[in-house]
Specification:
The protein is an alpha/beta fold. The chain is 42% helix and 13% strand.
Length: 395
Protein backbone atom coordinates (compact mmCIF):
# COMPACT_ATOMS: atom_id res chain seq x y z
CA UNK A 1 0.00 0.00 0.00
CA UNK A 2 1.26 3.45 -0.90
CA UNK A 3 0.60 6.43 1.37
CA UNK A 4 0.50 10.19 0.84
CA UNK A 5 0.74 12.94 3.44
CA UNK A 6 -2.00 15.35 4.46
CA UNK A 7 -0.13 18.67 4.16
CA UNK A 8 -1.47 20.41 7.27
CA UNK A 9 -1.15 17.62 9.83
CA UNK A 10 1.32 15.10 8.44
CA UNK A 11 -1.10 12.15 8.53
CA UNK A 12 -0.08 9.47 6.05
CA UNK A 13 -3.25 8.23 4.39
CA UNK A 14 -3.48 5.15 2.21
CA UNK A 15 -3.95 6.23 -1.39
CA UNK A 16 -6.95 3.86 -1.46
CA UNK A 17 -9.74 4.86 0.89
CA UNK A 18 -12.76 2.71 1.69
CA UNK A 19 -15.99 4.46 0.70
CA UNK A 20 -18.83 3.01 2.79
CA UNK A 21 -21.59 4.23 0.48
CA UNK A 22 -21.96 1.02 -1.55
CA UNK A 23 -21.63 -1.76 1.02
CA UNK A 24 -22.86 -5.24 0.03
CA UNK A 25 -26.64 -5.55 0.41
CA UNK A 26 -29.22 -8.29 0.36
CA UNK A 27 -30.87 -8.12 -3.07
CA UNK A 28 -34.27 -9.01 -1.66
CA UNK A 29 -34.42 -6.69 1.34
CA UNK A 30 -31.99 -3.97 0.30
CA UNK A 31 -30.44 -4.13 3.78
CA UNK A 32 -26.69 -4.24 4.35
CA UNK A 33 -25.22 -7.73 4.54
CA UNK A 34 -23.70 -6.99 7.93
CA UNK A 35 -21.24 -9.87 8.33
CA UNK A 36 -20.01 -9.54 4.77
CA UNK A 37 -19.61 -5.76 5.02
CA UNK A 38 -17.71 -5.93 8.30
CA UNK A 39 -15.43 -8.64 6.94
CA UNK A 40 -14.74 -6.56 3.82
CA UNK A 41 -13.89 -3.41 5.78
CA UNK A 42 -11.60 -5.35 8.11
CA UNK A 43 -9.87 -7.08 5.21
CA UNK A 44 -9.17 -3.68 3.66
CA UNK A 45 -7.66 -2.44 6.92
CA UNK A 46 -5.57 -5.61 7.31
CA UNK A 47 -4.18 -4.92 3.82
CA UNK A 48 -3.19 -1.34 4.66
CA UNK A 49 -6.26 0.84 4.01
CA UNK A 50 -6.41 3.41 6.81
CA UNK A 51 -9.05 5.91 5.64
CA UNK A 52 -12.72 4.95 5.99
CA UNK A 53 -15.37 7.35 4.66
CA UNK A 54 -19.03 7.29 5.65
CA UNK A 55 -21.91 9.76 5.90
CA UNK A 56 -25.27 10.41 7.57
CA UNK A 57 -27.53 9.34 4.64
CA UNK A 58 -25.54 6.36 3.32
CA UNK A 59 -27.61 3.16 3.34
CA UNK A 60 -30.50 4.97 4.99
CA UNK A 61 -28.39 5.90 8.00
CA UNK A 62 -26.97 2.40 8.57
CA UNK A 63 -23.52 2.88 7.02
CA UNK A 64 -22.22 4.68 10.12
CA UNK A 65 -23.53 1.86 12.32
CA UNK A 66 -21.80 -0.85 10.27
CA UNK A 67 -18.55 1.10 10.11
CA UNK A 68 -18.69 1.45 13.89
CA UNK A 69 -19.12 -2.30 14.31
CA UNK A 70 -16.29 -3.02 11.87
CA UNK A 71 -13.93 -0.82 13.87
CA UNK A 72 -14.36 -2.73 17.13
CA UNK A 73 -11.82 -5.32 18.31
CA UNK A 74 -8.84 -3.01 17.89
CA UNK A 75 -9.51 -1.83 14.33
CA UNK A 76 -10.43 1.73 15.41
CA UNK A 77 -6.84 2.56 16.35
CA UNK A 78 -5.61 1.59 12.89
CA UNK A 79 -7.70 4.00 10.81
CA UNK A 80 -8.84 7.55 10.29
CA UNK A 81 -12.62 7.94 10.14
CA UNK A 82 -14.27 10.50 7.86
CA UNK A 83 -17.92 11.43 8.40
CA UNK A 84 -20.08 14.32 7.23
CA UNK A 85 -22.60 16.85 8.50
CA UNK A 86 -25.68 16.65 6.20
CA UNK A 87 -25.76 20.33 5.20
CA UNK A 88 -29.22 20.07 3.62
CA UNK A 89 -30.79 18.71 6.83
CA UNK A 90 -29.48 21.39 9.18
CA UNK A 91 -31.75 24.29 10.10
CA UNK A 92 -30.19 25.52 13.36
CA UNK A 93 -26.92 25.71 15.25
CA UNK A 94 -28.18 23.32 17.95
CA UNK A 95 -29.12 20.75 15.33
CA UNK A 96 -25.48 20.53 14.27
CA UNK A 97 -24.53 19.40 17.78
CA UNK A 98 -27.40 16.93 17.88
CA UNK A 99 -26.40 15.31 14.60
CA UNK A 100 -22.73 15.09 15.57
CA UNK A 101 -23.63 13.48 18.90
CA UNK A 102 -25.72 10.89 17.08
CA UNK A 103 -22.89 10.18 14.65
CA UNK A 104 -20.38 9.67 17.45
CA UNK A 105 -22.81 7.27 19.12
CA UNK A 106 -23.51 5.31 15.92
CA UNK A 107 -19.80 5.01 15.18
CA UNK A 108 -19.00 4.18 18.80
CA UNK A 109 -16.07 6.60 18.92
CA UNK A 110 -15.04 9.66 20.90
CA UNK A 111 -13.54 11.49 17.92
CA UNK A 112 -14.23 11.64 14.20
CA UNK A 113 -10.83 12.22 12.64
CA UNK A 114 -12.02 14.03 9.51
CA UNK A 115 -15.36 15.83 9.63
CA UNK A 116 -16.75 17.27 6.41
CA UNK A 117 -19.64 19.52 5.48
CA UNK A 118 -21.54 17.29 3.07
CA UNK A 119 -22.37 18.35 -0.52
CA UNK A 120 -21.32 21.96 -0.03
CA UNK A 121 -21.82 24.56 -2.74
CA UNK A 122 -22.14 28.33 -2.79
CA UNK A 123 -25.67 28.75 -1.45
CA UNK A 124 -25.42 26.02 1.18
CA UNK A 125 -22.07 27.40 2.39
CA UNK A 126 -23.63 30.85 2.81
CA UNK A 127 -26.60 29.38 4.69
CA UNK A 128 -24.46 27.27 7.01
CA UNK A 129 -22.18 30.19 7.82
CA UNK A 130 -25.23 32.25 8.78
CA UNK A 131 -26.34 29.42 11.09
CA UNK A 132 -22.96 29.40 12.86
CA UNK A 133 -21.28 26.37 11.29
CA UNK A 134 -17.74 27.73 11.71
CA UNK A 135 -18.25 28.19 15.44
CA UNK A 136 -19.75 24.69 15.58
CA UNK A 137 -16.78 23.11 13.83
CA UNK A 138 -14.16 24.90 15.87
CA UNK A 139 -15.93 24.21 19.16
CA UNK A 140 -16.28 20.53 18.25
CA UNK A 141 -12.60 20.38 17.40
CA UNK A 142 -11.60 22.15 20.61
CA UNK A 143 -13.69 19.63 22.58
CA UNK A 144 -12.00 16.73 20.78
CA UNK A 145 -15.17 15.47 19.09
CA UNK A 146 -13.67 16.05 15.64
CA UNK A 147 -10.10 16.28 14.45
CA UNK A 148 -9.75 17.84 11.01
CA UNK A 149 -12.23 19.94 9.05
CA UNK A 150 -13.22 19.68 5.41
CA UNK A 151 -16.06 19.63 2.91
CA UNK A 152 -17.36 17.58 0.02
CA UNK A 153 -18.37 19.39 -3.13
CA UNK A 154 -20.61 19.18 -6.21
CA UNK A 155 -20.94 22.83 -7.29
CA UNK A 156 -19.19 25.02 -9.84
CA UNK A 157 -15.46 25.70 -10.08
CA UNK A 158 -15.98 29.34 -9.10
CA UNK A 159 -17.89 28.33 -5.96
CA UNK A 160 -15.18 25.82 -5.11
CA UNK A 161 -12.43 28.43 -5.23
CA UNK A 162 -14.45 30.84 -3.09
CA UNK A 163 -15.14 28.19 -0.45
CA UNK A 164 -11.48 27.13 -0.38
CA UNK A 165 -10.46 30.76 0.16
CA UNK A 166 -12.96 31.50 2.94
CA UNK A 167 -11.78 29.02 5.57
CA UNK A 168 -8.59 27.24 6.64
CA UNK A 169 -9.69 23.77 5.48
CA UNK A 170 -7.67 20.64 6.14
CA UNK A 171 -9.16 18.65 3.27
CA UNK A 172 -11.79 18.60 0.55
CA UNK A 173 -13.60 15.76 -1.20
CA UNK A 174 -14.31 16.26 -4.91
CA UNK A 175 -15.67 14.22 -7.81
CA UNK A 176 -12.86 13.65 -10.27
CA UNK A 177 -12.12 11.26 -13.11
CA UNK A 178 -10.95 11.48 -16.68
CA UNK A 179 -14.40 12.60 -17.85
CA UNK A 180 -14.78 15.32 -15.20
CA UNK A 181 -11.64 17.35 -15.77
CA UNK A 182 -13.67 20.48 -16.52
CA UNK A 183 -16.75 19.66 -14.45
CA UNK A 184 -17.44 20.79 -10.86
CA UNK A 185 -14.09 21.54 -9.13
CA UNK A 186 -12.24 19.96 -12.05
CA UNK A 187 -8.50 19.80 -12.61
CA UNK A 188 -8.12 23.51 -11.95
CA UNK A 189 -9.86 23.16 -8.58
CA UNK A 190 -7.80 20.14 -7.60
CA UNK A 191 -4.58 21.98 -8.35
CA UNK A 192 -5.77 25.15 -6.62
CA UNK A 193 -6.62 23.27 -3.41
CA UNK A 194 -3.28 21.44 -3.49
CA UNK A 195 -1.42 24.74 -3.81
CA UNK A 196 -3.25 25.88 -0.67
CA UNK A 197 -2.02 22.74 1.16
CA UNK A 198 -5.56 21.37 1.34
CA UNK A 199 -5.58 17.58 1.10
CA UNK A 200 -7.68 16.47 -1.88
CA UNK A 201 -9.67 13.26 -1.52
CA UNK A 202 -11.31 11.93 -4.68
CA UNK A 203 -14.78 10.41 -4.98
CA UNK A 204 -16.33 8.85 -8.09
CA UNK A 205 -12.99 7.95 -9.74
CA UNK A 206 -14.98 5.41 -11.78
CA UNK A 207 -18.05 7.67 -12.18
CA UNK A 208 -20.28 5.47 -10.08
CA UNK A 209 -18.49 2.35 -11.33
CA UNK A 210 -19.31 3.10 -14.95
CA UNK A 211 -15.72 3.76 -16.09
CA UNK A 212 -14.72 0.44 -14.54
CA UNK A 213 -17.26 -1.74 -16.31
CA UNK A 214 -15.46 -4.88 -17.56
CA UNK A 215 -17.23 -4.61 -20.91
CA UNK A 216 -17.23 -0.98 -22.11
CA UNK A 217 -18.89 0.12 -25.37
CA UNK A 218 -17.16 -1.48 -28.42
CA UNK A 219 -15.57 1.76 -29.60
CA UNK A 220 -14.08 2.35 -26.19
CA UNK A 221 -12.68 -1.17 -25.91
CA UNK A 222 -11.07 -0.81 -29.33
CA UNK A 223 -9.09 2.15 -28.00
CA UNK A 224 -7.99 0.32 -24.85
CA UNK A 225 -6.86 -2.58 -27.04
CA UNK A 226 -4.29 -0.27 -28.66
CA UNK A 227 -2.39 0.18 -25.40
CA UNK A 228 1.02 -1.49 -25.17
CA UNK A 229 0.36 -2.47 -21.55
CA UNK A 230 -3.02 -4.15 -21.18
CA UNK A 231 -5.12 -2.97 -18.25
CA UNK A 232 -8.74 -3.26 -17.21
CA UNK A 233 -10.93 -0.16 -17.61
CA UNK A 234 -10.98 0.21 -13.82
CA UNK A 235 -7.20 0.12 -13.62
CA UNK A 236 -6.84 2.78 -16.33
CA UNK A 237 -9.30 5.06 -14.55
CA UNK A 238 -7.78 4.67 -11.09
CA UNK A 239 -4.19 5.00 -12.28
CA UNK A 240 -5.17 8.19 -14.11
CA UNK A 241 -6.44 9.78 -10.88
CA UNK A 242 -3.49 8.58 -8.79
CA UNK A 243 -1.15 9.97 -11.47
CA UNK A 244 -1.97 13.48 -10.17
CA UNK A 245 0.47 14.50 -7.39
CA UNK A 246 -2.15 16.79 -5.82
CA UNK A 247 -4.40 13.82 -5.00
CA UNK A 248 -4.02 12.54 -1.43
CA UNK A 249 -6.37 9.55 -1.54
CA UNK A 250 -9.02 8.00 -3.76
CA UNK A 251 -12.27 6.59 -2.37
CA UNK A 252 -13.67 3.42 -3.84
CA UNK A 253 -17.09 2.02 -2.97
CA UNK A 254 -16.01 -1.61 -2.92
CA UNK A 255 -18.59 -4.28 -2.13
CA UNK A 256 -16.91 -7.53 -3.20
CA UNK A 257 -13.61 -9.22 -2.41
CA UNK A 258 -12.77 -9.14 -6.11
CA UNK A 259 -13.14 -5.35 -6.30
CA UNK A 260 -11.10 -4.91 -3.15
CA UNK A 261 -8.33 -7.23 -4.32
CA UNK A 262 -8.02 -5.47 -7.68
CA UNK A 263 -7.87 -2.04 -6.07
CA UNK A 264 -5.37 -3.16 -3.42
CA UNK A 265 -3.05 -4.49 -6.11
CA UNK A 266 -3.12 -1.15 -7.90
CA UNK A 267 -2.67 0.86 -4.70
CA UNK A 268 0.63 -0.87 -4.13
CA UNK A 269 2.41 0.72 -7.09
CA UNK A 270 0.28 3.53 -8.58
CA UNK A 271 2.69 6.39 -7.97
CA UNK A 272 2.08 9.92 -9.18
CA UNK A 273 3.58 10.88 -12.51
CA UNK A 274 4.18 7.33 -13.74
CA UNK A 275 1.82 7.16 -16.72
CA UNK A 276 3.61 7.84 -19.99
CA UNK A 277 2.75 10.62 -22.41
CA UNK A 278 1.35 8.02 -24.83
CA UNK A 279 -0.82 6.49 -22.12
CA UNK A 280 -2.18 9.88 -21.11
CA UNK A 281 -2.94 10.64 -24.76
CA UNK A 282 -4.81 7.34 -25.05
CA UNK A 283 -6.92 8.15 -21.98
CA UNK A 284 -7.76 11.54 -23.51
CA UNK A 285 -8.95 9.73 -26.64
CA UNK A 286 -11.13 7.42 -24.55
CA UNK A 287 -12.61 10.43 -22.75
CA UNK A 288 -13.37 12.09 -26.09
CA UNK A 289 -14.99 8.87 -27.35
CA UNK A 290 -17.22 8.71 -24.27
CA UNK A 291 -18.23 12.34 -24.77
CA UNK A 292 -19.27 11.53 -28.33
CA UNK A 293 -21.71 9.02 -26.86
CA UNK A 294 -23.38 11.75 -24.81
CA UNK A 295 -26.93 12.45 -26.01
CA UNK A 296 -26.60 16.07 -24.79
CA UNK A 297 -23.30 17.72 -25.65
CA UNK A 298 -22.91 19.45 -22.28
CA UNK A 299 -19.37 19.98 -20.96
CA UNK A 300 -20.47 21.16 -17.52
CA UNK A 301 -18.89 24.58 -18.09
CA UNK A 302 -21.63 26.26 -15.97
CA UNK A 303 -21.94 29.25 -18.35
CA UNK A 304 -25.70 28.71 -18.37
CA UNK A 305 -25.86 29.23 -14.61
CA UNK A 306 -27.44 30.60 -12.55
CA UNK A 307 -30.84 29.71 -13.99
CA UNK A 308 -33.49 32.35 -13.12
CA UNK A 309 -35.99 29.54 -12.43
CA UNK A 310 -33.59 27.61 -10.19
CA UNK A 311 -32.79 24.66 -12.48
CA UNK A 312 -29.35 23.10 -12.00
CA UNK A 313 -28.89 22.65 -15.73
CA UNK A 314 -25.44 20.97 -15.77
CA UNK A 315 -26.47 18.50 -13.08
CA UNK A 316 -29.67 17.56 -14.92
CA UNK A 317 -27.76 16.96 -18.15
CA UNK A 318 -24.95 15.05 -16.41
CA UNK A 319 -27.37 12.57 -14.82
CA UNK A 320 -29.25 12.05 -18.09
CA UNK A 321 -26.02 11.63 -20.08
CA UNK A 322 -24.58 9.16 -17.57
CA UNK A 323 -27.70 7.01 -17.71
CA UNK A 324 -27.67 6.88 -21.50
CA UNK A 325 -23.91 6.48 -21.95
CA UNK A 326 -23.43 3.68 -19.47
CA UNK A 327 -26.71 1.80 -19.74
CA UNK A 328 -28.01 2.60 -16.27
CA UNK A 329 -31.57 1.62 -15.49
CA UNK A 330 -34.13 4.38 -15.40
CA UNK A 331 -34.59 3.78 -11.68
CA UNK A 332 -30.87 4.29 -11.04
CA UNK A 333 -30.96 7.59 -12.91
CA UNK A 334 -34.08 8.70 -11.05
CA UNK A 335 -32.49 7.94 -7.69
CA UNK A 336 -29.39 9.98 -8.49
CA UNK A 337 -31.57 12.77 -9.85
CA UNK A 338 -33.68 12.82 -6.68
CA UNK A 339 -30.59 13.08 -4.48
CA UNK A 340 -28.88 15.79 -6.49
CA UNK A 341 -31.78 17.78 -7.89
CA UNK A 342 -34.87 16.81 -5.94
CA UNK A 343 -34.27 18.86 -2.83
CA UNK A 344 -32.57 16.20 -0.70
CA UNK A 345 -29.47 18.40 -0.45
CA UNK A 346 -31.26 21.72 -0.28
CA UNK A 347 -33.38 23.62 -2.78
CA UNK A 348 -35.14 21.72 -5.56
CA UNK A 349 -33.39 22.19 -8.89
CA UNK A 350 -35.66 20.07 -11.12
CA UNK A 351 -35.54 20.22 -14.90
CA UNK A 352 -39.31 20.74 -14.85
CA UNK A 353 -38.83 24.11 -13.15
CA UNK A 354 -37.72 25.54 -16.50
CA UNK A 355 -40.03 28.38 -17.62
CA UNK A 356 -38.49 28.56 -21.13
CA UNK A 357 -37.13 32.06 -20.70
CA UNK A 358 -34.24 30.99 -22.95
CA UNK A 359 -31.80 33.16 -20.98
CA UNK A 360 -29.43 30.18 -20.79
CA UNK A 361 -29.17 30.08 -24.58
CA UNK A 362 -27.41 33.45 -24.53
CA UNK A 363 -24.47 31.88 -22.72
CA UNK A 364 -24.17 28.24 -23.83
CA UNK A 365 -20.93 27.75 -25.84
CA UNK A 366 -22.29 24.47 -27.24
CA UNK A 367 -25.53 26.14 -28.45
CA UNK A 368 -27.59 23.39 -26.84
CA UNK A 369 -31.33 24.02 -27.03
CA UNK A 370 -31.44 23.83 -23.27
CA UNK A 371 -35.17 24.26 -22.55
CA UNK A 372 -36.04 21.56 -25.07
CA UNK A 373 -33.50 19.12 -23.69
CA UNK A 374 -34.61 19.83 -20.11
CA UNK A 375 -38.05 18.57 -21.10
CA UNK A 376 -36.44 15.24 -22.04
CA UNK A 377 -34.69 15.08 -18.68
CA UNK A 378 -37.88 15.88 -16.78
CA UNK A 379 -39.84 13.24 -18.68
CA UNK A 380 -37.17 10.63 -18.01
CA UNK A 381 -36.14 11.44 -14.44
CA UNK A 382 -39.26 12.80 -12.77
CA UNK A 383 -41.80 10.17 -13.77
CA UNK A 384 -43.41 7.63 -11.41
CA UNK A 385 -42.99 9.75 -8.28
CA UNK A 386 -39.41 8.53 -7.74
CA UNK A 387 -38.15 11.95 -6.67
CA UNK A 388 -40.61 12.24 -3.80
CA UNK A 389 -40.05 8.63 -2.76
CA UNK A 390 -36.28 9.13 -2.48
CA UNK A 391 -36.63 12.48 -0.74
CA UNK A 392 -38.87 10.88 1.86
CA UNK A 393 -36.43 8.02 2.45
CA UNK A 394 -33.38 10.23 2.93
CA UNK A 395 -34.84 13.24 4.73
Amino acid sequence: MLYRKVPKNGDELSILGFGAMRLPVDKKTGQIEEEQAIALIRKAIDKGVNYIDTAWPYHGGQSEVIVGKALKDGYRARVKIADKLPSWAVSSRSQMDEILDQQLEKLGVATIDYYLLHALEGDSWNRLKALGVIEFLETARACGNIGNIGFSFHGSHEEFVRIIDEYNWDLCLIQYNYLDTGNQAGTAGLEYAARKDVAVIIMEPLRGGNLGRPTPPPGIQALWDKAEIKRTPAEWALRWVWNHPGVTAVLSGMNTDEQLDENLALAGDAKAGTLTALELKLIDKVADAYRELMPINCTGCQYCMPCPAGVNIPSCFDIFNTAKMFGQTRQQAQFTYAVRNGGVRGNKTYASLCVECWECMNHCPQRIKIPERLKEVAEYCEADGMVDIVRGALS
